[in-house]
Amino acid sequence: xxxxxxxxxxxxxxxxxxxxxxxxxxxxxxxxxxxxxxxxxxxxxxxxxxxxxxxxxxxxxxxxxxxxxxxxxxxxxxxxxxxxxxxxxxxxxxxxxxxxxxxxxxxxxxxxxxxxxxxxxx
Length: 122
Prior knowledge:
The protein is built from 4 helices and no strands. It starts with a helix and ends with a helix. By secondary structure, it is mainly α. The chain crosses the membrane at residues 6-22, 31-49, 61-86.
């Protein structure tokens, strides 16, 4: 199996897997867009390997080095975007946990006041 066929098959499989997980609501559309873009890139490079060879020639890289360079660049960018999103979600989770603790404390105080007001003789 040559690299072009592998990239084409990989692109088709990536499309299928992405659509499957989106339909099951296990993958948000926000992330699916990145995976579909990656699948598209794999598919285009697999179907038109001349594009990658042209890029390799213009960048003065060998063909395998160009494939590795592009793959690592895409992986880095996608991983960085996921890291930023996870950081945002972590901070939001911390803030929501703090707000929940404050609301629970307020509720506890209100319940104590209500219970005290219902007791006769006070």
